[in-house]
UniProtKB/TrEMBL annotation, chain A:
Keywords: 2Fe-2S, Disulfide bond, Electron transport, Iron, Iron-sulfur, Membrane, Metal-binding, Oxidoreductase, Transmembrane, Transmembrane helix, Transport. InterPro entries: Rieske_2Fe-2S, Rieske_2Fe-2S_sf, Rieske_Fe-S_prot, TAT_signal. Pfam families: Rieske. The lineage of its organism: Bacteria, Bacillati, Bacillota, Bacilli, Bacillales. This is Menaquinol:cytochrome c reductase iron-sulfur subunit.
UniProtKB/TrEMBL annotation, chain B:
It comes from the Bacteria. It comes from Planococcus maitriensis. This is DUF2487 domain-containing protein.
Amino acid sequence: MSNNRVSRRQFLGYTLTGVGGFMAAGMLMPMVRFAVDPVLQQKGAGDYVLTDQAVADITEEPVRVDFTFEQVDAWYTSEVTNSAWVYKEGDKLVALSPVCKHLGCTVNWGGDPEQPTQFFCPCHAGRYEKNGQNIAGTPPLGPLDEYDVQEQDGFVAIGQVKPNTLV
Amino acid sequence: MHFNSKDIDLYASQKDYVDTAVVPLIELDLTASGMKASAGASEYLQSLTVILEKQFKGRILLLPPISYVRAADRTELGGQLKKELSETGFKHIFYLTTDPKWRSVDDLDNVLWLPAIPTGDMDQSFKKSVMEDQLRQVLPLFTKEWTHHS
């Protein structure tokens, strides 16, 4: 037995403080967790999708680069393959979306033999400049969208789609 | 465009531009020996029409596959489809099928018969390149039809 005798009053005081503390912590912890939730949120792992196109092989001529990612549509997970037209502007990589801004067909580089340096939409003969600018007088009403693009270990990685920043 | 409510809204507002209907025709063979081949052909035709739709989204409406049993009268079915479609505004109608019996139906124009390739056992990237080759065979038929009758 130790020499400091704990009185009944002290014992009850310690016990109530301890139990009360636990209860308060139990209530406060989830609240704090909710409050700081945005900070703890994980960034989606699929921000950039690595393709098998080497950056060294990219020239000023746009090439089609396919990239595949998993898309979850309600309970159905599927592999979706999209493509991008990638070329170099000086040292900078540029990736344009192939989706026509008119009604969503897929555009091709040089698809019209008479306009080998433009993007061509086979559906309604829409045309775009190399930087995605739509050519007046053809159906599309806006420039092609652009992808975030970066180099990862010498290969092209494609990110999120965004409105065209080149025109 | 696909045959779903969202795309049909867009179709209704852009009727002038979407002037082509694509109808996949699929034969159902449910006998024990024919089932696998029939399923493979159906898978092939549906993959092909999906990538075709992706390429020409703004100009074609891809209808859901018309499936029928082996004994179905192709001539009668073709006539009914043709009649239903003639009441719409489509200027061009393409029927895609792997079923050789459609070749003897003279009533329908633009029946594209394709030999089914069993893509089910291929790995993803090989399947993709095969399907793209197939797509390249079909695309010129569409652009040719469009430039000749537009």
